[in-house]
């Protein structure tokens, strides 16, 4: 996800390149890897379509960096 190793590095790269970034973070996430970054955060579960749809609305592109951590 956006707050894990791949995702957080991708978020920083996009910000450095001047992109406005929105992320969907699972409510149980305890990662602080995105603290202090100028991003829009949405809390929710990517498996719940109503949450996912509202989080991606208005964006030009969507990048999925979700993995099963189990």
Account of the protein in words:
This protein is α+β, with helices and mostly antiparallel strands. It is built from 2 helices and 2 strands; from the N terminus they run H-E-E-H. A two-stranded parallel ribbon has the order 1-2. The protein is globular, with a radius of gyration of 11 Å. The two termini are 13 Å apart. The model has no long low-confidence stretch (mean pLDDT 88).
Summary keywords:
70 residues, alpha+beta, two-stranded parallel ribbon, 2 strands, 29% helix, globular
Q: Span between N and C termini?
A: 13 Å
Number of helices: 2
Indicate the mean pLDDT.
88
Shape: globular
H and E string: HEEH
Helix fraction?
25-40%
Number of strands: 2
User: Mind summarizing the main beta sheet?
Assistant: 2 strands, parallel
What's a quick, concise take on this entry?
The chain has 70 residues and is α+β, with helices and mostly antiparallel strands. The chain is built from two helices and two strands.
Write the layout of secondary structure elements.
Elements: H1 5-16, E1 22-25, E2 40-43, H2 49-56
Parallel strand pairs: 1-2
